[in-house]
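Researcher: Re-running this chain for the archive, since the previous output was lost when a drive failed. Same request as before.
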Amino acid sequence: MSITKYTKHRAKKFIDSKHMLTGITTASFLESTIVPIPLEAILVPFMQARRERLWVIALMATIGCLMGALLGYTVGYYLFDILGEWIINTLSTPEQFNMIEQKMQSQGFWFVISLGIVPLPFQIAMLAAGATKFSLVIFLIASAIARSIRYFGLAIIVYYAGNKAEALITKHKTKTMVGLTITVLTLWGLSTIS
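Model: Regenerated structure tokens:
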């Protein structure tokens, strides 16, 4: 059984649990920090099964991610000299991190939003924000916007598509990511002109 199928199987058992919202927050925290499994794999079945809690599920996923973002920022800020090289080599390459660090210094807000939406390792953005001493408040605002777009976007799809949401998301995921990326890059470009 693949890890995604196993995760979905466990999620179905957890859906009716009284710990569901805590579990979603924890899963989101772990996904944003150390677990490379897309949270969407469990969020959509949860949202489909518990439509009456749809918006709360999206909110708890966002909160969990922000807690993870704060941890990643803190590690970058205080422990980068100790753990940074290991984390970079585990999640990325030194060259990629240097590029991200430069983007963070020059275009931090929009860069965080774009990394928070597109399917790239958000952990690198968290570390770079902390390592470059980027404003924590602006980092958290950008992270909240980006992850809210992802999670509340899923909630909107489930709200309107119901049980067909998972198939719809799978079918149009690439187009949606490309569209969101183009939108964010356009807004980013427009903000630099002003």
